[in-house]
Amino acid sequence: MRLILLGPPGAGKGTQAQRLIHDYGIVQLSTGDMLRAAVADGTPVGLKAKDIMASGGLVPDDVVIGIISDRLDQPDAARGFILDGFPRTVPQAEALDQLLDSKKLNLDAAIELRVDERALLQRVETRVAEMKARGEQVRSDDTPEVLSKRLTSYRTLTEPLIRYYSERGKLLTVDGMMAVEDVTRDIRHVLRRSGVPASKFGVRRW
Ligand code: AMP
Q1: Rounded distance, CA 131 to CA 139, Å?
Q2: pLDDT band at 75 (very low <50, low <70, confident <90, very high)
Q3: Range(s) of the domain holding residue 166
Q4: What is the mean pLDDT of residues 8-36?
Q5: Domain count of the chain?
Q6: Is 118 a catalytic residue?
Q7: Tell me, what CATH number does 150's domain have?
Q8: Does the residue 115 lie in any domain?
């Protein structure tokens, strides 16, 4: 199964991806995680991405397309994957279509987590407070100022993908404001209803 998760920062894409990979036996491919690893390792990609990420901007399309293209060729992606944070622009979506075409692979669905943007700030503040309380390191782009820039990027550059996938008959929308387990249940439900093959592993009870 090959899926995309769409939604603004803080919508819960990473959390839902983690739950779905267990259900469906596929891998989560998060460009944000890959870029953060590149920054931590000080690779050439990391050096390019560091300041852009810290300020809430988008890393250039060719950089993330290159990362994803390499990652899709890894053996663990052969059984399927869930893309979290990619594509984020129409050129990235077009490049993904070309990549999948060239590998004779099909995209099953793009799942949009629809959320109330005003609630996102609150969510980020709660997440940061919880991480601090656990003594964990807080992401440098998890501040209200940077979040508002990330939301602007989302609105202008990523939101057009809702239409892009809707026009191609791939879009499935789920209310992302519900409790985590209810969102997961709805995702499974819309996938089943749209005829996406069910999990080989049965449905896990959360
Ligand atoms: P995320 O963890 O998905 O919120 O991503 C964190 C940051 O990494 C974003 O704010 C961007 O700066 C960068 N990033 C992640 N994925 C992409 C992408 N597909 N295109 C451009 N920049 C990205």
Answers
A1: 10
A2: very high
A3: 2-26+80-194
A4: 93
A5: 1
A6: no
A7: 3.40.50.300
A8: yes
